[in-house]
Amino acid sequence: MRGRGPSLADRLAALREAVEVADGRLEVPEVGTARSLLAKAGAREALGDATVVALAGATGSGKSTLFNALSGAEVSTPGVRRPTTGVAHASVWGDPSTGAHGADRLLDWLEVPRRHRVADPDPALDGLVLLDLPDHDSVRLENRLEVDRLVQLVDVLVWVLDPQKYADDAVHTRYLAPLAGHAGVLLVVLNQVDRLDEAAVAACLADLRRLLDEEGLAGVPVLPTAAPSGLGLPQLRAELGRRVGARKAATDRLTADARGAASALAAHCAPDAGRDRGPDRAAREELTGALADAAGVPAVAAAVERSARRSGVAHTGWPVLRWTSKLRADPLGRLNLGDERSRTSLPQAGAVQRAGMDAALRRARDEAGRGLPPAWRDELRRTSEDTEERLPDRLDRAVAGTDLGPDRTPLWQRAAGGLQWLLALTALVGALWLLALAGLGLLQLDDVLPLPRVQGIPLPTLLLAGGLLAGLLLALLCRPLVAAGARRRARTARRRLTARVAEVADEEVLAPLAEARADHDRFCAAVGRAAS
């Protein structure tokens, strides 16, 4: 046995949440239908507890005659030619002096201008607003549209059929079958049964019952009537009186509509809504790697390494040749890094890098959309396309603003540089000494001063050659150390750049996809509450 379920207010609140979540994300007609229902519910709840019952049917079904019989007056004129009833008529039961049920405001909202106040109202029907709708099969389009409009607005729908056309596929397919969830607010009347004998009436009723059961309308009462003779009218009045007396027909109709709208929206929910489908660590690393390649991280890391080599060689090389390093521009300085407000001078991503980035973005989108219905996959695609438009600029600014690590000269390089200056000074002393000796030789004074020797080698020569050779050897010994330090700094820069790219991937790619997936789960949870 089905439980009572949530109240109408709770269902509408859940449906409103689902519509708000879907707004701007889902481009499906069911969202518009649900939005219209919420507007209808807000207006209908403000118009009191009168019960609006509509008689609908085809041309010749006798619904206008039935309407007059229930109203006790010739309110709607039956016709013999198509079209007959062109506009809706209304009969109102209740005390006009009190306006207890706000029937006039209700009819204004329904846009039904022709109104009749029942002169001798039945107390059991107090609060009933009975409508005679135009024929649903009218040759006039405006009449058919009016039927469709009012069928969506009334509280209780009485479908009047006749023995000749009770199985008409147009009626069942277009009107009755779609109301499978509205059995509690639907009545079916088989009118004009006085034209048949008893066996034929029983056969028609049995066949009609079968058709309704097959359409999911097993709970809908089927009443045989014959308006001219009054056959079945007391039973129909009693059924209407029961609906009116309960004072909840409007609530029942809105509840059925809310459940129907939610069930339609549920077609856009994955069976396993709520399951986390975020990308795993390997997928995130793959995406980050592809974005890093497209952002030029390898080029920046290579520039950092070349710049560190250049600086290290300049600090540890021969002092007299250091000026030559200034002839070549700093590889890192040419990239215009350090200010994320301006663009870098990195080259544009090549075809291979762009293809890798596109493939990684597509895989991230497909992973996020796995198991989702088409409407939500379309939303993920739109989200991904929006991301792809702004991603290159966002990556470029992230690379430009990344701290690449400390740009200071290592102590050992400073020490090596100091030693190089000392060796250069030693070589200079030797050179100057030799020049002095050469000058003395020209003046024939070379024997005046004794020449110190070390192992038979003149000390000035030893100072000059030793300083130069030691400087060259020190420079050669420092080269591998400089290269190792440059590679280490490049790895630090690459690690920091990759971390910034990973942040961009989270913020610009994964977070929007996860948000869309979370919205799907919120949407489905709200739809489930509204449909329960």
UniProtKB/TrEMBL annotation:
| Transmembrane domains' residue ranges | 421-443, 463-486
Task: Identify the stretch annotated as signal peptide in this record.
Answer: none
- Give the keywords, sorted: Membrane, Transmembrane, Transmembrane helix
Gene3D superfamilies per UniProt = P-loop containing nucleotide triphosphate hydrolases
Start and end residues of each G domain: 53-169
The record, for InterPro entries, names: GTP-bd (IPR006073), GTPase_Era-like (IPR005662), P-loop_NTPase (IPR027417)
Protein origin, superkingdom: Bacteria
Key word Transmembrane helix present: yes
Kindly provide the name given to this protein in its UniProt entry: GTPase
Q: Specify the species.
A: Geodermatophilus arenarius
